[in-house]
Specification:
This protein is mainly α. Helices cover 74% and strands 0% of the residues. Among the domains are: 13-203, no CATH class; 572-651. Residues 146-573 form the TRAP C4-dicarboxylate transport system permease DctM subunit domain.
């Protein structure tokens, strides 16, 4: 095992990182994150591909700032460009990326044919709009080609799960007896299919925020988050795990990828946790649970916040405001569990003299200015696109005062390249999610879902919530954050909104949470498996540990389903205070019960009582709140008395 009291120095972080070298990280990324499985280019071809990605990123900026084109035209130009780049950058399967400067002939054909289908729509837009459902045979063929090529592109960058879901929905559309022409028209030529709301949001907001995230990383602002986390929690018991929770929350909200964030921040934090004395499966699970939680962390929420605002028909600022308390409770739950685990194992933290100096961090506080500008502009009424672009410019400006990460010309173009590349997987997934949404809209499948769940649940909200939760976890397995939310919002949220009269934002938040936790819920727990690969731990044990650590994500949605005060909906300040205090105390009790420790070890009976009382506190009722607080207070008092007796006996 590991030495429980081994001291960790920040000077050794590089050594910990070296334990998981670049080759190992690349192997893990390629295994669990298809976005990392890219072709290798050298020489002139490398320069050409880099210029293509940079041109794409700049084109997106131009399109959102200056172009005055119709929505269908903008979205088709966006998808056509994405398809060309995907077939240029991504190989047909894993292992084919190692042969440099090689693009097979069939990829040239697929890339040209797929993009041509969307560009044809742009060129003949007026004619196609006039034809409506009377589109000709050529338009039908091009629509079929466009959808099939997009499907293959999505498979390459996100994997099979979302393809299987979309295929099942399309087969259902055919089973209803709808003709091919009608299906293709609805899925390819209208704004309720491939070029629907998901691609609309992706081509305007998400792409620019991905570019913004790339510049945050290039300018060292992401590293500043980790330094802040070390300063805040590094010295406490089991400090590295707490650093992982805080830094992953801050970095994960921007990255938009549970797996990607697990690998990048985990390459440092997981070895540090192991050196401190955490078991490997627990260390990998902490990083996976925290990185997955980054997707629910305001103000960006892995780009899903923009989609939610569009789906709910509310301002973006309203979404991030309502997401604050649930996110705080989620990370509080993980933080408490790693603290209790550290105390139980008597683990040490990082020596204070080795931590970043507070005075140094204060001097660099200006690095947070891009995020401040972003939030201020959005709240002040600027469009999200313009806000993201201005925040990116501010990130470049503040980097000039940072000697270590000053933005250079090469750094500028590399950030644009990474931003363009990072957009590809999200765009392809949004296109496929649009197909799912289109089928639901075209066939009335959503109403069938609603009727089925409501008939089983009757008027019982808890049964409806549990059935919806199961649907979300199954449909969300292996699906990227943005596409995940779109699928949930299209298929599952209406069950709660229409069938159970639940508030639209509360319903969307509910399905979003359970779609996200699919990344750490066995059997398809990609983020947990990535964490286990870095930790050298058993994948399934890591996944179960991650699920335990993320228990808050399985409880909090039920809280705001029954008590909308947690989302600042139809509430008073006193109600908000009550739900925050009782929920936090409830998370304290559940965390202690899960780990088996509070102030000292808990026996099995007290663990069960603690978890039960925690659930009582989370349930919105004065009676359960009072009873839960009395019992938990009694357990804490008993532990205090026992600890004092031990001290007296030892003396």
């Amino acid at each position: 095992m590991f030495k429980k009291k081994e001291k960790i120095s920040l000077e050794n972080i590089a050594a910990f990182h070296a334990e998981v070298n670049d080759a190992d990280l690349e192997a893990v990324m390629k295994k669990y994150d298809r976005e990392a499985n890219i072709r290798h280019f050298e020489g002139i071809p490398k320069i050409i591909v880099k210029c293509m990605l940079i041109a794409f990123a700049l084109f997106m900026v131009y399109m959102n700032l200056f172009a005055n084109w119709g929505e269908q035209v903008r979205r088709c130009l966006f998808l056509g460009s994405v398809i060309i780049l995907i077939f240029t950058v991504y190989p047909r399967k894993k292992g084919m990326a190692q042969k440099p400067n090689h693009i097979p002939w069939y990829d040239w054909i697929l890339g040209i044919a797929g993009s041509a289908s969307f560009f044809y729509y742009v060129i003949h837009f007026n004619e196609i709009i006039q034809k409506a459902t009377r589109i000709g045979q050529l338009e039908v063929v091009l629509g079929v080609i466009g959808i099939l090529v997009l499907t293959e592109a999505c498979r390459r960058v996100t994997g099979i799960p979302i393809i299987l879901v979309a295929t099942g929905f399309v087969l259902y559309a055919f089973s209803t007896g709808l003709p091919l022409r009608r299906i293709i028209y609805n899925l390819f030529y209208t704004t309720t299919g491939v070029i629907g709301v998901p691609i609309g949001v992706c081509s305007t907001f998400i792409v620019l925020f991905i570019i913004f995230g790339a510049f945050l990383e290039a300018t060292g602002i992401s590293n500043f988050f980790i330094q802040c986390a070390n300063s805040i929690a590094g010295a406490s018991s089991g400090g590295p795990a707490k650093v992982a929770v805080i830094s992953s929350a801050l970095c994960g909200m921007v990255s938009g990828s549970s797996v990607g964030n697990t690998v990048t921040t985990g390459s440092v934090t997981i070895p540090m946790m192991k050196k401190t004395g955490y078991p490997p499966e627990f260390a990998g699970a902490v990083e996976a649970a925290a990185s997955t939680g980054g997707q629910i962390m305001p103000p960006i929420m892995g780009a899903a916040a923009f989609l939610m605002a569009e789906m709910c028909g509310v301002e973006y600022a309203s979404i991030i405001q309502k997401a604050i308390l649930p996110a705080f409770l989620y990370f509080s739950g993980i933080f408490l569990m790693v603290h209790f685990k550290a105390r139980k194992l008597k683990l040490m933290g990082i020596p204070k003299e080795e931590l970043p100096k507070f005075s140094h961090l204060v001097k660099n506080i200006y690095l947070l200015l891009p995020l401040v500008v972003l939030v201020y502009m959005i709240i002040d009424g600027y469009t999200m696109s313009r806000s993201a672009i201005f925040a990116t410019l501010v990130a470049i400006a503040v980097s000039m005062f940072n000697k270590e990460n000053r933005m250079t010309v090469n750094g500028f173009f590399s950030a644009l390249e990474n931003g363009g590349k990072g957009t590809l997987s999200v765009a392809a997934a949004c296109g496929m999610a649009g197909i799912i949404a289109g089928v639901v809209s075209m066939t009335g499948l959503g109403q069938i879902f609603i009727s089925g769940i409501v008939s089983i649940a009757g008027n019982n909200l808890i049964i409806a919530l549990m059935l919806t939760m199961v649907c979300c976890i199954i449909l969300g397995m292996g699906v990227p954050t943005t596409a995940n939310y779109i699928i949930m919002a299209t298929t599952c949220a209406p069950i709660l909104i229409t069938g159970m009269n639940m508030d639209i934002i509360a319903a969307n938040m509910f399905v979003f949470y359970f779609g996200i936790v699919a990344d750490i819920t066995p059997p398809v727990a990609l983020a947990a498996y990535a964490g286990s690969a870095i930790a050298g731990a058993n994948p399934m044990k890591t996944a179960f540990n991650a699920t335990m650590l993320a228990i808050a994500a399985f409880i909090i949605p039920y809280v705001f389903a029954y008590n909308e005060a947690l989302l600042f909906i139809n509430t008073t300040p006193l109600q908000v205070i009550q739900v925050v205090v009782t929920s936090f105390v409830g998370m304290f009790a559940i965390s202690g019960g899960m780990i088996g420790y509070m102030l000292r070890d808990l026996n099995p009976i007290l663990r069960i009582i603690s978890i039960g009382c925690g659930l009582m506190l989370i349930y919105p009722s004065i009676g359960t709140d009072v009873l839960g607080i009395i019992v938990i207070g009694s357990i804490v008092a008993m532990q205090l008395i026992a600890s004092k007796r031990e001290l007296k006996t030892a003396a």
